[in-house]
């Protein structure tokens, strides 16, 4: 097989179908960029889970006098027996420290809770009418295995002196569920773009094969094998896919640089989020390029078996 002849045939095919080849490149680039973005989103969610699940606490809020009065008037069972007593408080702390699941227990007084509340919500109108005695005392519990936070809820919810047991994991679960749905939406759009790209590749191969049916017929008459005839068409599709894959890699790299890392980026504006780094991006780029080459090549090979009749 003469490489010069194959390369010349690839050039002829690309020039004859320049518009369709450009459409294939754009479709492949967009679909692969969405594919790579979905993989990076999955890494981001996993990193956020590992970071936040290790930091969040389970909070056990204790009854105070105002809780007992409000719940008594409304008929609620929580805090119906009055504010937490020193003995109840001591017993709760003792029981927490006995649990193997518990790593640390931090007691927060009403004054400390009020101070933290003022730091976070001091600019709001409600903060001006809140008093320290309205803020509940609490135990902030850090777990050795954060995913087992429900054990604490089961053990202390409804106990005398306990107003409520709240775990921040539930809020995080809602956030990660939403991110998961967004990731699925991106994958869905990627599949649509991928189907469009495959249809364009098949159509481009059909047009290219039809426009060169005379040449391929002559090649068959002089004894050229089917593989020899098919190679230029497959290489054209592979080249278009490779260019699309390169564009996809550029888009992923640009997204990491401009959106997350550079200047007034998300990393500086949202310091509480542990964003993925370049190591995650660089590990995805080879996969994007490989898929960018193999997907069009396979589509062209399958299309040629049906449409290359000589």
TrEMBL record:
Predominant cellular place of this UniProt entry's protein: membrane
Answer whether the UniProt record assigns the keyword Hydrolase to this protein.
no
Can you give the residue ranges of the ABC3 transporter permease C-terminal domain? Answer: 189-308
Q: Where in the cell is it found?
A: Cell membrane
Its GO CC terms are: plasma membrane
Could you say which protein family the record assigns here?
Answer: Belongs to the ABC-4 integral membrane protein family. FtsX subfamily.
Q: Which PANTHER family match?
A: CELL DIVISION PROTEIN FTSX
What is annotated about its quaternary structure and interactions? Forms a membrane-associated complex with FtsE.
Q: Name it.
A: Cell division protein FtsX
In its UniProt entry, the species of origin is given as Streptomyces vinaceus
């Amino acid at each position: 097989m003469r490489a010069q002849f194959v390369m010349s045939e690839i050039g002829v095919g690309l020039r004859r179908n320049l518009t369709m080849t450009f459409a294939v490149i754009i479709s492949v680039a967009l679909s692969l960029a969405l594919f790579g973005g979905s993989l990076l989103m999955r890494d981001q969610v996993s990193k956020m889970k590992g970071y936040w699940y290790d930091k969040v606490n389970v909070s056990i809020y204790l009854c105070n006098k105002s809780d007992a009065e409000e719940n008594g008037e409304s008929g609620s069972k929580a805090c119906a027996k009055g504010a937490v007593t020193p003995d109840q408080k001591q017993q709760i702390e003792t029981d927490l420290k006995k649990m193997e699941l518990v790593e640390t227990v931090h007691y927060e007084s009403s004054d400390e809770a009020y101070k933290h509340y003022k730091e976070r919500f001091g600019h709001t109108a409600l903060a001006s009418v809140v008093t320290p005695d309205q803020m509940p005392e609490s135990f902030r519990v850090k777990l050795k295995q954060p995913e087992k936070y429900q054990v604490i809820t089961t053990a202390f919810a409804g106990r005398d002196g306990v107003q409520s047991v709240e775990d921040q994991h539930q809020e995080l679960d809602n956030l990660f569920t939403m991110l998961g749905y967004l990731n699925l939406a991106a994958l869905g759009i990627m599949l649509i773009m991928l189907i469009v790209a495959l249809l364009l590749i098949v159509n481009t191969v059909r047009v290219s094969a039809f426009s060169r049916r005379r040449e391929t017929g002559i090649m068959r008459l002089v004894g050229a094998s089917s593989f020899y005839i098919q190679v230029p068409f497959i290489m054209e599709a592979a080249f278009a896919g490779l260019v699309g894959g390169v564009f996809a890699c550029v888009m992923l790299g640009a997204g990491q640089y401009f959106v997350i890392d550079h200047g007034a980026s998300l990393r500086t504006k949202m310091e509480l989020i542990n964003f993925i780094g370049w190591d995650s991006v660089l590990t995805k780029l080879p996969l994007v390029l490989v898929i960018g080459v193999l997907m069009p090549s396979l589509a062209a090979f399958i299309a040629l078996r049906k449409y290359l009749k000589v």
